[in-house]
Fold this sequence. Notes:
Blueprint: E1 5-10, H1 20-32, E2 36-41, H2 47-55, E3 61-66, H3 68-78, E4 86-91, H4 97-101, H5 108-117, E5 120-128, E6 131-133, E7 136-140, H6 145-148, H7 151-157, H8 159-169, E8 176-181, E9 186-197, E10 201-202, E11 206-207, E12 220-226, H9 231-242, E13 251-256, E14 258-271, E15 274-294
Parallel strand pairs: 1-2, 1-3, 3-4
Antiparallel strand pairs: 5-6, 5-15, 7-9, 7-14, 8-9, 8-14, 9-12, 10-11, 12-13, 14-15
Helix pairs in contact: 2-3, 7-8
Amino acid sequence: xxxxxxxxxxxxxxxRTTSKLKAENIAKTFVKYxxxxxxxxxxxxxxxxxxxxxxxxxxxIVACVGGDGTLHEVINGYMDTSRTAKIGYIPAGTTNxxxxxxxxxxxxETAVSSMAKGKVQTVDCGDFNGAKFIYVASFGAFSKVSYAxxxxxxxxxxxGAYLFDGIQSxxxxxxxxxRITTDDAVYxxxxxxxxxxxxxxxGGIVNLPKTLVNxxxxxxxLLLIRSVENPEDLFDTIHACIDFNxxxxxxxxxxxxxxxxxxxxxxxxxxxxECAGDFDRVEIKNINPGYDLLIPQKFEF
Length: 301
């Protein structure tokens, strides 16, 4: 049995988890399984980061309920602490890309029961010019869809809201000339997408080979898509990725613990689906070991 002192952070605006009553019921579920939760409901953007930074060292477990953005905030605060607490995550967002890859249960009762069994896996964390991310840093095609899609539309249509806005964004795709340096190679070209990931999927659309991905190996997966001439070539390239054809002429898939990106212009980036700002120079480092995550008993990285 794991230690029982829990900092419980709940984002009431994530997905369909919107009521204070639901938050209180989740807290009661923790009590049912022998935990002693200290419930904090976030009130504004960045609040989860502040709570995790200020309070994590006082608890044995830091558990959050929300989407990938909520976990992103928690980890950004947690990584500034001693990192002795374990991380628990109950996915309650719209897509929950990170949690799906490691099969974290969405039903609170099942999730808390799993945490009580106490299986822990150390997971790498990403450093993006000093900011932290859990599973993806990206620029280019479709990158802004997750943060540009209104929350009320995400709550109403779920993943369908992303797909609808993603289809619309096809017409906004443009190339960025970039020089990308990894541990052992340099890639310079016009790219329409760049994703640095520690996940089994990119955007919930492109799955990466599970024989390649290891969330604890100190290396990212780097996916690059070169500029294409027309929409037909674009869809052909996307389908190549979906079909695991990473040898396609427009696709580069490699691994590295360090990535430097130099772009000819200020370019919008996203971290874990959230807007990170515009950059023309970025250094990304893999923090290994990162954080200890409570995972289901039957799952192996």
